[in-house]
Amino acid sequence: MAFVAAGFEEAQFWRLTLRAYRRWMRGAEERRRQVLLHHAEATRAGSLLGEEAYRSWVAAVRGAETRLPEEALGGVLARAGAQIEQISLAEALGKMGAPAEAPMSAELE
Description:
By secondary structure, the chain is an all-alpha fold. It has one domain. It contains seven helices and no strands. It is elongated, with a radius of gyration of 24 Å. The termini are far apart. The model has no long low-confidence stretch (mean pLDDT about 75).
């Protein structure tokens, strides 16, 4: 039943007129749309901003600190990964100041 799926109790359904049912369901649909829009906006902000800038954005938008919704995490990580320069292990070790011929984990045992 869509009414219960929208978060309402089944007992309330039987007391509603058709007009009231439509109004309640439109309200539930609008709330769901707003949540999806917020998640999309948070995903976009999270993928473009650093941690401090993201927290500032959240405080400005909601007035309190929040985290990205779990369903947004995959998109944020994929977008962030696409922006990272791909380099070899030797290049990474060189940038860190380690010798290019560092032992591999199997050799450490």
